[in-house]
Amino acid sequence: MKIDFDKYPYPKKIRHHTSSNLYFPIKDLKIVPSYYPPLYDDIDISKYFGNSKSPDILDIGCGKSKFLLAYSEQFPDRNILGIELRKGLVDWAQNYILNEGIKNAWVIWYSAVNGLKFIQDNSIAEVFYLFPDPWPKLKQQNRRLFSIEFLNELYRIMEHSGKLYISTDCDYVDEYHLKILKKSGLFDYEISSNKEWKYPRTNKEEFCIKNNIPIYRIEAIPKK
Length: 224
Ligand SMILES: C[S@@+](CC[C@H](N)C(=O)[O-])C[C@H]1O[C@@H](n2cnc3c(N)ncnc32)[C@H](O)[C@@H]1O
Prior knowledge:
There is one protein chain. The chain is α/β, with parallel strands linked by helices. It has a single domain, classed as Vaccinia Virus protein VP39 (Rossmann fold), CATH 3.40.50. The chain is built from 5 helices and 7 strands, in the order βαβαββαβαβαβ. Helix 1 links the parallel strand 1 (57-60) and strand 2. The longest helix is centred in the last third of the chain and has 14 residues, at 171-184. The radius of gyration is 17 Å and the shape is globular. It starts with 56 loop residues before the first strand and ends with a strand. The model has no long low-confidence stretch (mean pLDDT 95). Bound molecules: S-adenosylmethionine. The site of S-adenosylmethionine has 20 residues, from strand 2 and helix 5.
């Protein structure tokens, strides 16, 4: 997919990280700021797709949506939903999707730390969790989305034959993912760092490959 960035420039200022409140569940906040993304608990997510079917693919933390848009082109029979915190990037992706008439992709402005109640049980074939923010400082690690609760929610929404794809360029984040997966016990998983997946590259992945930065990859399958 070739995006015309003259026609669709990315927002001028994309803050690398957004306000710290947004990385925590709304239920844990004493005061909910006006800029907190909506919860979508009762939303019928199928209305965003041309075939009026629910999504079967999730891209959690889709960032600049390069992967999501290329995926939707490569797999026109699948509905891919992106979830992203940074509103400017969500607005950009929604505008692109609507203007280009793409029917099988959508991105919502949402903090996935609030769970995925708007996704039905056993409905998702593939979840992509690619290059999450690393949060290297100890006091910021509670902003990481990957947790036992997050894996419980993924296990609920994923088809039994589904697959969870996880990648990072940070060895300590990879170790953290493996630790949480082991603790959860809900997924069988294997390290697949030495093989590139058959999917389009994300923005971050392109950057890593161009700069010879190693990528750590995990494939996880829900236990029966
Ligand atoms: C390092 S970027 C990677 C983006 C993209 N996946 C890629 O590989 O290029 C991580 C993205 O996850 C988003 N993110 C972090 N926490 C999130 C959350 N709780 N809910 C939704 N998106 C989140 C960030 O805003 C950011 O855009």
